Amino acid sequence: AVQGDKLLFKNSGKVVQAGTLSTPSLAELNEQAQLVLHTDAALTGVLSLEEVVADVQELHANPDNAGALFQVASQFNLLEMVSPDVTPEQGVTRYQNDKTQGPACAIACGAGLIYRNYFVPVGEQLGQTANKQLNMLATLEQALMRYFSLLAATDYANITSPWVMQNGYALPSKQQLILINKVLAGLNPTEYQQLKELVCIGLQYDTQVTIKQASHVVTQAYCSAMPVAYNYHSNELWQPLASLILDAAYEATFAAAVVNAKRTGNKRLYLTLLGGGAFGNSPQWILNAIKQACTRYKDYALEVKIVSYRYSNPQLAPLLSSLT
Q1: Neighbouring residues of 277: CB distance < 8 A, sequence distance ≥ 6
Q2: Structure confidence by residue, pLDDT tens digits, 32-70
Q3: Phi/psi of residue 160, each to 5°?
């Protein structure tokens, strides 16, 4: 049962802090971060960036990271489906078998995970189901459809959405991607930024670490990338949309870290390479997105750490040297 920001487990009588979930847009987060910059001199300074080779669950469990912000690779429903065919009803215990970054982080704050799957309000309903889920791209979808309607009618005949959203995976057809690219190519920089700022992320504030006997709380930012490897379109066709989503996700995470630092006093931000690995986003798109976010937030005293698992990632070297 849910009691405020806590979960009560009836069988054991245990109470664990799930924290509070919000789903702000990039526009809202940028606005909040700007406000912090104007009101908190302690957060103005120089952003630092480094790579840390570590197990992300160990980082969660370290009490030094109480109040830090962890970026988590997720789907657009803030869950960790291993494929587009997995529904929320299939539960969260299966996450234990998935050793990738997202499930590892979700399990590290188990009460927050249970809340996002079973108790989060989705319209009138409590909890996510196969037919009703959170969608961090809902507003972007509406805006793209408005742009589609301005194109020649023959271009978008029979197209009723920019992609199929299936269990948190946004899966566009070739025709849908061509239309999206046409729209993006026609935008000026201001319009592009406004479109990008419609992307939302999930922020789970003050969520208790539930592994390794820890009891402190952290903040988690649940972000997704486009599932490039799941649709057999060329990188060239995917790049404009995939980059827009990555740019939005990292910019939102950095803005959230500023807001979080003001709330908790912890300036640490742990990043992951969103959309890498199984999702098939080009490393260059990901690194460009991180670089852009670092540049935008360079005057905030954030301590940004890119987490690599097991060994150092040589692809990070040019990014690290360009920003230090």
Answers
A1: 100
A2: 999 998 888 888 889 999 999 999 999 999 999 999 999
A3: -110, -5
Q: What is the pTM of this model?
A: 0.96
We report the CATH number of the domain holding residue 67 as: 3.40.220.10
Assigned domain for 10 exists: no
Decide: 126 and 114 in contact? Cβ < 8 Å: no
Domain assignment of residue 88, yes or no? yes
HEC readout, 26-89? HHHHHHHHHHHHHHCHHHECCCEEEEEECCHHHHHHCHHHCCCEEEEECCCCCCCCCCCCCCHH
Range of the domain at 140: 15-323
Full DSSP string of 191-258: HHHHHHTT-B-EEEEEEEP-STT---EEEEEEE----GGGS---HHHHHHHHHHHHHHHHHHHHHHHH
What is the domain count for the chain? 1
